[in-house]
């Protein structure tokens, strides 16, 4: 399971993948998680748009990428290397497949964690065909020796294969056919500048607005043969955390509820009742998100409180709270990270229907005046 958007796609060779740090284990079935499980991979393969015209959202990225691909086709050359960054579930793998389709080229899919030695990368590069697209997911997690080999491959379409060891080692240059590397990362800041600078086009994927997600829901509903009205699609879109993958997952669960408990039509009321069953509230928070907020507000008076203490309070691992729950809570303005620890915002108190405590003598909300009780 890749951290971002692993899929089963046409390939000219074996595709490899490895889990990334912070990714929930295979048994994690969080309905609003942006990571793809086995079912998601199969369904997404059917729901993915096949060209830029079908791709919804990311208008600037689509316009810029369209120019890059059209110019390459007009020159009769391979497209420049492309770097796609952004949160999981926003369409990076889909765009990589679209690039291959637009260039009428095969695509090879692998991931950074799967390339732990320079020899692993050399084996993949040496088997590429001319014009082939190599999609490297979670590229920032590739090993340093492989990364250094990639520099020369991207720039000069050549790699040096070392034969032997010690003083007798010999570097044999291996010429590569022109190819297009599409790198995807959820943490662009971890990419070293020499690697980042070798990409001819860099795009950052933004979270989707509700109207865009409504279009995603309507399109997926048509492909899944689910009947949904405007209000039903809007209800699902509003709880999808700005992520198409989550929107598609929620749509499938609402479809199940509508088939079993209703007449099969997805309306606003049906969607709301279905997502209440799956513990996804009107802002897209699930059990884990609300558990973090509940502990922060009720146990620690709104904070500040250290991450480890907060994780123990909700019965989760520290990394799970930090990498799975916190990013969305911070983006929604429900939680803030401070040097002294995690602090709840007024919006968090309002969302859970609780009254915030009076300001302490230090002027910080909640238990800020008692921050020394908890590690930062």
From TrEMBL:
Residue segments, region Large ATPase domain (RuvB-L): 28-208
Major localization listed first in the record, in broad terms: cytoplasm
Signal peptide: none
Protein name: Holliday junction branch migration complex subunit RuvB
Swiss-Prot/TrEMBL domain comment: Has 3 domains, the large (RuvB-L) and small ATPase (RuvB-S) domains and the C-terminal head (RuvB-H) domain. The head domain binds DNA, while the ATPase domains jointly bind ATP, ADP or are empty depending on the state of the subunit in the translocation cycle. During a single DNA translocation step the structure of each domain remains the same, but their relative positions change.
Domain AAA+ ATPase: 78-209
Record region (Disordered): 1-23, 354-376
Family classification: Belongs to the RuvB family.
Residues reported to bind Mg(2+): 93
EC code: 3.6.4.-
Biased composition (Gly residues): 363-376
Keyword terms, alphabetized: ATP-binding, Cytoplasm, DNA damage, DNA recombination, DNA repair, DNA-binding, Helicase, Hydrolase, Nucleotide-binding
Region of interest (Small ATPAse domain (RuvB-S)), residue spans: 209-279
Enzyme class, spelled out: hydrolase
GO BP annotations, alphabetical order: DNA recombination; DNA repair
PANTHER family: HOLLIDAY JUNCTION BRANCH MIGRATION COMPLEX SUBUNIT RUVB, PTHR42848
GO molecular function, one term: four-way junction DNA binding
Substrates-to-products reaction catalysed: ATP + H2O = ADP + phosphate + H(+)
């Amino acid at each position: 399971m890749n951290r971002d958007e692993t899929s089963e796609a046409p390939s000219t060779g074996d595709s490899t993948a490895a889990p990334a740090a912070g990714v929930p284990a295979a048994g994690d079935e969080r309905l609003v998680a942006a990571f793809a499980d086995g079912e998601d991979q199969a369904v997404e393969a059917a729901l993915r748009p096949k060209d830029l015209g079908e791709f919804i959202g990311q208008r600037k990225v689509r316009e810029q990428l369209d120019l890059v691909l059209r110019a390459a086709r007009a020159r009769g050359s391979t497209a420049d290397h492309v770097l796609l960054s952004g949160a999981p579930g926003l369409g990076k793998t889909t765009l990589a497949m679209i690039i291959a389709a637009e260039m009428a080229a095969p695509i090879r899919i692998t991931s950074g964690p799967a390339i732990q030695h320079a020899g692993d990368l050399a084996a993949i590069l040496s088997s590429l065909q001319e014009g082939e697209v190599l999609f490297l997911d979670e590229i920032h997690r590739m090993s340093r020796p492989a990364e250094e080999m990639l520099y020369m491959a991207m720039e000069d379409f050549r790699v040096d294969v070392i034969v032997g060891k010690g003083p007798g080692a010999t570097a044999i240059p291996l010429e590569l056919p022109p190819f297009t590397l599409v790198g995807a990362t959820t943490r662009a800041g971890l990419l070293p500048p020499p690697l980042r600078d070798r990409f001819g086009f860099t795009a950052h994927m933004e979270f989707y607005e509700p109207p865009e997600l409504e279009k995603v829901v309507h399109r997926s509903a048509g492909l899944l043969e689910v009947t949904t009205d405007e209000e039903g699609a809007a209800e699902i879109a509003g709880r999808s955390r700005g992520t198409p993958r989550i929107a598609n997952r929620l749509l499938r669960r609402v479809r199940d509820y509508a088939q079993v408990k209703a007449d099969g039509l997805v309306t606003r009321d049906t969607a709301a009742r279905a997502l209440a069953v799956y513990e996804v509230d009107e802002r897209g928070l699930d059990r884990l998100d609300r558990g973090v907020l509940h502990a922060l507000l009720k146990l620690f008076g709104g904070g500040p409180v250290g991450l480890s203490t907060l994780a123990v309070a909700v019965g989760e691992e520290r990394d799970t709270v930090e990498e799975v729950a916190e990013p969305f809570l911070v983006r929604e303005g429900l939680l803030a990270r401070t040097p002294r620890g995690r602090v709840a915002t007024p919006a968090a108190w309002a969302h859970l229907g609780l009254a915030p405590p009076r300001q302490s003598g230090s002027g910080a909300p909640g238990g800020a005046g008692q921050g020394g009780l908890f590690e930062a």
